[in-house]
Amino acid sequence: MSNSLVTKTPLSDRLFNAIVKISPKVLMAILILPVLGGLFGVILPAFGWLPALDKTQFNVHGFQQLIQTPGIAQMIGLSFFTSIVSGLLAFIITLLLLATYFDSPWLPRIQRLLGPILVIPHAAAAIAIAFLITPSGMFARLLSPWLTGWQNPIDWLLPHDPYGISIIMGLTLKELPFLLLMTLSAIAQPALNIKLRAQYRLALSLGYYPMTAFFKAVLPNIYPLMRLPILAILAYASASVEMPLILGPNAPPTLAVAIMNWFHDVDLSLRIKASAGALLQLLITMSVLITWWLLEKITLAITCKSLSNGKRTYGDAFWAKIINFFTVLLISFITLALLGMVFWSFAGYWQFPLALPEQWVLVHWQSALLQVQTPIINSLSIGLVATSIAIILTLLTLEFEKQNGALLSNYSSLIIYLPLMIPSIAFLFGLVWLQEALHSKAIFMNVALAHLLFVLPYVFLSLASSYRRLDPRYAQVAASLGASPFKIFLQVSLPQLLMPIMMASALGLAISFSQYLPTLLVGGGRLNTVTTEAVSLANGASRRTSAVYALIQMLLPAIAFSMIWLVSTLQNRQKKNTKVNL
Amino acid sequence: MPLGKLSRLLSDKKSRFSTVFANHSLNKAAIFLSHKQQNGLRTQFTITSNFKAFGVILRQLILMLAVIFSPTALSYTAPISAQIFEQDSISVTTSLVAKKAPVETIWNTIETLGKNHSVYFHAWGGDPQINIYIQWLAKRVKNSHNIDLHHVKLTDTSEAVSRVLAEKSANNHQQGQVDLVWINGENFASMAQYQLLARGWVAQLPNFSLTNPSENEAMTRDFGLPTQGMEAPWGQASLSFYYTPSPNTHDLNYAQNSYQDSISKAPKNINQLLTWAEQNPGRFTYPKPPDFLSLSFLKYALIALNQQQKEQVKSGLYQAPTPQSQAALLPTLWAYLDKLHPHLWHQGQYFVASGTALQRLVGDGEINLGFTFSAAQIPASVARYNLPENTRSFVMKDGSLSNIHFVAIPYNAANSDSAKVVANFMLSVEAQAKKQQAEIWGDSTVIDVSKLPVQQQLLFSTNQPHPSALPINSKIIALSEPHPSWSKLINREWLKRYGAQ
C-alpha cells in the first residue's frame, strides 16, 4: 500500500504538469483569437461589407475614398517619419547613456530618475509636454519678459507644428525610459551581467576608452536583446493616438488619428473608409519595421569592420562631456514638465509672463478627488486582474519551455508580440464588433482581457530573458536531490526571479493603467478609468483639472513601482544580514 | 397574420402576457396587434437579470389576477395596451387628445417597470459643471425611483452613435448598452436616418406637456427635422462670445469700467470680426470641423454673411442644400474664411480639435476672443480660475445661432423604461430650474415658464449676475439652425479646402 503511494506522483505535481503543458496553448489563444478576430472585423468593412448600413457587396470603394482624401500622403508621411525618427532618437540616446554611464554609479540613478517616466501614461506625458512648450508654457514664462520682452504669448507653431517635431519630442521622451529599462533588466541577469562586465573590463585593460569599449565589447552582445523592444516602440509610435492627438498637427493629422476620427464621425458611411485606413495603417507599421530592419543591416555592414580595427577612442572625452550636458538638459526638461503640471494643479489665476501662479488653491484637487474614486478602483482592479493573469501565464509558459528544453518556435514568439506589432487601432474596432456579435455582457472581464492583450507581451518581454538565463544548475541540483518539478518551480526558480517578477508586475500594471483605446472601446465607456477620464478632460476647458487628472494618472503606477523599491531594499537588507551572520 | 403574432407573443417569455391575456379575453387583441411593430413590447419589457425577472413576473401575476377579477380594470387595460402597442405611431397631438386617465396609467406602468434598474446615460463629459449636475440628477432618481444613473462620459457624441450602430450590425436588438443619449443636430439626423432611436415615447412623459409643444414648435423640431417623439428636449442655448483684453491693452481698473467700455474693443458682427482679426493677428481662432462648436461658428458666419441676400435665397438654408442654393450661399463664406485664416492663431495652420480648447487658449492669454454655446460656463470658469477676471460675455449684433438639445433613447436600449423615468425627471420643474441657475450650469430651460404657477416661476429667476456673465438685458437675435445637411456639406467642403495645407 505504501509502495504504491510512493511510486505515484502527488496530485499537485500531476496538476502542475498538466497546467504547464496547456499554458502555452492558452497563452497563444488569448493573444491570437482577439487580434485575428478584430482584424477580420476590420477587413470585411474595408471591402465594403457592413450590413448595418445595408452594404453587403464587396468592393474597393473604401480604398478609393481613402486615396482621394485630401492630404493622405502627408498623413502617411507624418506617421512614418515621426515613428522612425523618434525610435531612432530613443535608441541613440539609450546607447549613449549606457555607454557613458555603463560603469558609473550614475546609471542606476538615471534609471531611477527615468523609471517614473516609463509609467507615466502617454496622455499624461503629452499633457505635461504641451504645458512646457506652448507659447504660454513654462519655457516662455521662464524667459519672459526679461529676456524675450514678450508681454503676451507670441504665436509660434509648437506644440502643433505640421512637421511633427512635438510628436517626436513626446514619443522620444516616452520611449527612451522604456528602452533603457528593458535593456537594463535584460543585462541585469547575473550570468550575462558577469560576462558583459568581464568583457568590458578586459576591453578597458586593453586600453579602450570607456565609451568605445562599450560600443565594441558590450553592444554587440546586448543589441539582440534590444531588438524586440525597439520594434515594439516603432510599431506603437507609428499607430499611437494619444500623443499625436494632444501634440500633433491636425491639418492633416497622423493617419492613426484620422482613422479614429473617421470611425467616430457622425457620417456613418465613413466607417468603410476608416476600415480601409486601418489596413493602410497596418502596411505603414510594417514598412516602418522593415525600414528599421534595413537600417540595422546597413549599419551592421558599415560598422562591423570597425569593431576589430583596434582603434581605442573616437573622441571619447568630448562626447562624454556633451552627453553629461545633454543628460542634465534632459532631466531638467522632465523636471520642469512635471513641476509645471504640479503648479497648474494648484494654480489660481496665472497671467502669462508670470513664472509662478498668482494664487495657490486646492479647489481643483478637491473637486477632482470627489469624483475620482470609482475610476481609481476600476483602474486598480482591471490592472491587477490583467497583470496577475499575464504573470501566471508567462511563468507557466516559460516553465514549459524549460521542461521541454527548447525555446518557443519562432512562430509562437512572433504571436506573443502580435498585439505590439499590429496597431491597436487596426483591430480594436473589429474586436468591439466581434464582442457585440457574441453578445458578450461581462464588461469588466472583457476590458480586463483586452488589457491583457497589451499587458501580456510586455510582461513576457520583461520576464522571458531573465527566466531563460536562470542558471539551470540550481534546478539540476534540486532535481538530483529528488525535488519534483513543481517544488523546483516554486522553491528554486521563483525566489530567484523575485525581482524580475516584481518588475514585470509593475510594468504590467503601468501598461494597463495607461490603456485608453481598449478601455474606451471594449468597455463601451461604461468602465471609467483614470486614463479615460484624463483624456476626456485633456480636451476640456480647464488646464488645471487636466493637470490634476494627469498627476493622479502618474501617481497610480508610481505606487506600484515604489512597492518594488521597498521589496528590493528589504531583500538587500536581508542579504546583508545573512552575510553578516555567515 | 395577427393570430400568428399573438401566438408568438404568448410564447415569448419576455412579453407581458398578462396584457395580451386581458386583450384576448376582450377579443380585441387582433386589432391592436396589427399595429405592433418590431420594437414595441420587447424593448419595454426586456429584463436584465433572472432575479429581477422573477420579481416582475410575480408583479404581473398579481396584476393579471387583478385584471381578471375586477370589471373596472378590464375597461382600461384595453387603452393601456393600445397605447403600448401603438407607441410607434403616437404623435404629440394624439397624446394630448387622449384621455388623461390612460396616459397616467401608462406612465404608472412605465414608472413601475422602470424602478430598480440602471440607466447608462451617454453624454459629453468635457465640462465638470455639467458632470456635477448629472451627478445630482443621479442622486435624485436614485432616491425617487431607485434608478442607478451612470454617466458615460463621451468626448464626442458620435461615439454613442457608433456604438448603437455596431450593436445593430451585430443583431443586438434588445440589450443595447446605451439607454439614454444627449444629442441633437447632425448626430440625431444620423441616428434617425439609420433608425437607431426608439420612436414616439416622448409624449408618454407627463412633464413633456410643460414645454407647451403645441404652441412651441421648436420642442418637436431638431435643426428643422421633426423629432417624431424620438427625443425629449432638455435645454436650449445660443452662441455667445467672450472677450478677454490682453494685460497691456487694458487699463488696470477694469473692475470699475462699465460693461460697454470693457467690450468696446471687441468685434460686434461678422465683418467687424475680420477687421478685428486683421488688427490683432493671432488672437482669434475657431475649432476644426466636425466639432460641434466649429460647425456652429461656420453656420453663424454663413447666415450672417448672407443676410443681405433675397428671402428666397436665404430660405435655401432651411432646406436640404441644392446645387443652386450652394452656389448662391457658400462662396461668400469661403471668401470670408480665405481672408480671415491668415490672421488667425497659428496663421490658420492649426485649428484646435474641440470647442472647449478655445476656452483654455483664452485662459492662457494666447487668444483674446472665444465663443461658447453655454454662456453660463463663462462666469463659472472665471470663478474656477480658468478664465481671467476681466473676461466679459456678449452676443453678436447680427444674431446668435440658437438651438435646443435633447435626450434620446436608442431603439435597443436595455432599460428604456428607466430611461424614460430619467428623461421625465430631467423635464421636471425642479431639475430644469436647478439647471438654469448660473452657478449650477446656466443652461436655459425648455419649459414654458409663463404657463407655470407663480411660485414655480420664481424658481427660474436668477440672482445678481457675475460681471463676466452675459447681461440679462442682452438683446439676443436668435438665428435658427440651418437644415442638418448643411453641416455635413460645410464640414466636407471645409476639410477639402483647409483640411490639408
Largest sheet of chain A: 2 strands, antiparallel
Q: Span between N and C termini of chain A?
A: 45 Å
Helix and strand composition category of chain A: mainly alpha
The residue-averaged pLDDT of chain A reads 85
Got a strand count of chain B? 11
Low-pLDDT stretches of chain B:
1-51, 63-99
Strand fraction of chain B equals 5-15%
Order of helices and strands of chain A: HHEEHHHHHHHHHHHHHHHHHHHHHHHH
Name the shape of chain A in a single word.
Answer: globular
Estimate what percentage of residues of chain A fall within beta strands: under 5%
On the 0 to 100 scale, the average pLDDT of chain B is: 78
Distance between the termini of chain B: 61 Å
How is the CATH topology of the domain at 9-59 and 375-527 in chain A named?
MetI-like fold
| Count of DSSP H/I helices of chain B | 22
Q: What do we call the CATH homologous superfamily of the domain at 9-59 and 375-527 in chain A?
A: MetI-like
Alpha carbon gyration radius of chain B: 25 Å
- Strand-pairing-aware structural class of chain B: alpha/beta
CATH architecture tag of the largest domain in chain B: 3-Layer(aba) Sandwich
